[in-house]
Amino acid sequence: MAPSGSSPPSSLGRSERMVLAAVAAVLVLLMLWLRGGLHPEAPLERLARQSPELTVALADGRPTVVEFYADWCEACRSMAPAMERIERQQRGRMDVVLLNVDNPRWQPELERYDVNGIPQLEFFDATGGSVGRSIGARSGAELDALATALVDGTPLPQLAGVGAVSALVETTALESATPQSQAAPQAGPRSHG
Prior knowledge:
Blueprint (H helix, E strand, L loop, with lengths): L13 H21 L8 H8 L3 H6 L4 E6 L4 H17 L4 E6 L6 H6 L7 E5 L5 E6 L4 H13 L9 E2 L30
């Protein structure tokens, strides 16, 4: 029996506690590394932060990809590493613009491009003319093919969910959006409908 006032003997020695502390530290570092490093920003946040203004991108003589996204969108987050890689590889040849559907600033663009689900990609040629749209998640290979076609000025690849926009939307993106106050209400981007 332990004398009163003294603590019971530890079942772990000093060396075992140090090994456990070292293992815990390695596990913490491994978890941080797997989540994208010590930086608090994930690829989606980095891309959004460095994204050029839409009007600037559409007027600079380079093709542009506009992604309508949301921070909470898992498909948007899963596409972000590939989008970030493409942005790095095509920097100076193509612009990547991210517009958060939860930001009221982009409401005119949400209406103009009829965004009713995310992720939605809008594709523009070097003159700012709309050349197509993609709705839904895309693989890295699909995003690469779409970016290559844009930069090369060739037709977008035939992928499910990718197509040309209608004549109603196919005006240059630099024109101001027409007020739609008399239009029928549409589903919002958060409806995924």
